Amino acid sequence: MTSTVGKTDVIASFQIIEGLVLSRPSKVIKSPFVADVLIDGKSYLAHTPSLGCNGMVEKHKRVLLTKAESGKCDFTVVAVKMSELSNGNTERDEVVEHIIGLDPRKAESFALDALNNGLIERLDVKEIKGQITLHDCRFDYVGSTKQGQAFVVEVKNVSIADHEVWPQRVLQNKDFTGRIWNHKIAYYPSNVKSANQTVSERSVKQLRTLCRIKRDHPEMRCIVMFVIQRTDIVQFQPNQWDAIYFQSMKEAHEAGVEIYAISAEWSSLQSKHDTSASTTESIMNVRLSHRKVPVRIPVIMS
User: Fold this and answer.
1) pLDDT per residue over 226-261, tens digit each?
2) Does 77 fall in a domain?
3) Is the dihedral of CA 255, 257, 258, 264 positive or negative?
């Protein structure tokens, strides 16, 4: 993957292949992390790092893939092509197609591009290292600025958005007909458990550790960066229905941990046919916007 810098944005480019999901889990490898995908008339195994991603990687879905570097799978699902009405009115509105990125590793890579190219305000990177453990907790990036200020960054991939933030069982019964397609709310985490459980103990531990680091080293910048791999959104918020994660996020924010959300816009360019592999590849551009996505932390009434 390569990156270039425009006047305000960063462009990441890499090769992708388009396919159609035949089944997930795969009929060959019975794992929810593996799907059978049809590419140019032939079935391949594809790793699905985000599982089904709330129904986005299921049978008949059009997905974008990269070649797998190792393992039993031939490809990795990195994005999905979605179609929806421009504002839900079937009588007069056009069908809009857009791409939603799914792969958490791509989010980490996009975040690194954003950090190295100054998309986070007042953070001029001099040195940066990945996957560093602090206080028995692993973070995506740790480094220092040209001004000598230390920083730690944890990256979270965001693929889910809707017009309102509710548990999936409630959203299934919601009617958003007439809502404008690109006025959604991105949120994390995407699912919820019971009232006394969190979806990700690791994410909660990271937030609490960042609070501890900020308390012990107030001069250090502690950052949580949410990379939203879709552009049909107007804001980001933590999912208040995961009460433990939400409260941890609120406490981190109040302790001085910085919360950023950036958008990643996927757009394909020219295609080429790989005769040796019998597949058609495209050059994919992902634009990392300099414009920050507004972050909202709702006030929850007890």
Assistant:
1) 999 998 999 999 999 998 999 999 999 999 999 999
2) yes
3) negative
